[in-house]
Amino acid sequence: MPRVSQTEGHRMTVSEREAQIITWLAEQKDAMLDLLRDVVNIDSGSYDKAGVDAVGARFERFFAEHGLLTRREANERFGDAIHIRLDDRLANERPVLLLGHRDTVFSKGEAARRPFRIENGRAYGPGVADMKAGLVMNAFVLAAFAKFGSPVPVAGLITSDEEIGSPACRPIIEAAAREARAVFNSEPGRPSGNVVTGRKGGVFMRMVIEGRPAHSGGNYEKGISAIGELAHKIVAIHSLTDLAKGTTLNVGIVRGGEAVNMVAPSAEAEIDLRYVDPAERTRAMAALQEIVATSYVPGSKAMLEIRGEFLPLNPNQTSEELFAHYQAAARDAGLAVEGEISGGCADSGFTAAVGCPTICAVGPVGGAAHTPEEYLEVESLVPRAQALALAVMRMD
Ligand SMILES: [Zn+2]
Question: How far is the CA of 182 from the centre of ligand 1 (A)?
């Protein structure tokens, strides 16, 4: 597809270009839904590399068809990361980064069980809102800039492993954010239509307890109950919660024991820590280590491992300015948008932590993420794309 060169692009006035892009995006609703249907109907659970890469290939085809350049950053275990650029000449300028992940929480077969469908203005299917619609929106905004030019450098990044804490993509996201002038993360807009200006940090852990087996009738006193130890530890861990500070500890999964007539030789728990202030992470982790090291049932042993972690997105002056800037652009796209704080975690915490102004949940509006009831408000696709395009163009 022919595309307006950067010089031709600069000859247009900003308002001309804005009008062209707004009009073009408004005409793309059906094309957006076609691309969304394609990618929702491909399973892409975080551990399903083949599926995640198949979704990536579908997006790469879209970008090639719209004159955009892509570069894969390969990963052996998880899906490859995909970088998108308008053209090579912008490589040294600080771009606005449009960010999103294409993995979902759903297992293989889910797309076949409940394929993409639209009912009463809402679209359904695994990952439809979280966040394949956000990626489709980013893709069309980038395509609009490829077609009409952009007054500011802009780049895209599609990651592969956000739902498990971005073990592979975190350094890629951080590197891209260090180069960027701002990050818009296209997680789903809140059901209210608001975007997210603050997110909690999260640490996801597994604690394993070792006891000693014994016959519960014949040799009870020789046993060391790992389950008994776990019970003490759970109470102690939950008591570290400080709701006023936004710090929570949740033991979400427990396992343990082997038979009703055996003193439990082993037990384990999965623990989720959420916090706002990094000092609270320090406090809670130190207290947690203390609890792990304490044997409430003499002779028991425990160890703790961190299995995944997100950093918090804490509002600061530059992120508040970025939000105000986005809010004004959204108003011109017909949307009234406020900022919300969310207890949920996302990759936007990583980009904020390296000092890049970031706002999150600028994607199309949806809800009930991570459940079979997950939905997307179809009519939000175009205006959210227009709002994002205006916000990017006006960052000059
Ligand atoms: Zn997400």
Answer: 19
**List of E strands, the chain:** 69-73, 81-85, 96-101, 117-119, 122-124, 154-159, 182-185, 188-189, 195-199, 201-210, 214-215, 248-256, 262-263, 266-275, 301-310, 339-342, 358-360, 363-367, 375-377
Q: By C-alpha distance, which of 40, 326, 360 is closest to 184?
A: 360
The mean per-residue pLDDT over the stretch 36-42 comes to 98
292 and 350 share one domain: no
Instruction: Tell me, in angstroms, the distance from the centre of ligand 1 to residue 368's CA.
Output: 12
List the CATH number of the domain containing 344: 3.40.630.10
Ligand 1 centroid–CA 134 distance in Å is 9
Q: What residues are paired with 268 via a beta bridge?
A: 208, 255
161 Cα: distance to centroid of ligand 1 (angstroms): 10
pLDDT in tens, 298-319: 999 999 999 999 999 999 999 9
Q: How far is the CA of 275 from the centre of ligand 1 (A)?
A: 19
Structural domain span for residue 377: 4-200+312-393
| Cross-sheet strand order for the sheet of 154-159 | 69-73, 81-85, 154-159, 96-101, 182-185, 358-360, 195-199, 339-342
Q: Ligand 1 centre from 52 Cα, in Å?
A: 14
Mean pLDDT of the chain: 94
Residues 208-259 pLDDT 10s: 999 999 999 999 999 999 999 999 999 999 999 999 999 999 999 999 999 9
Same domain, 59 and 176: yes
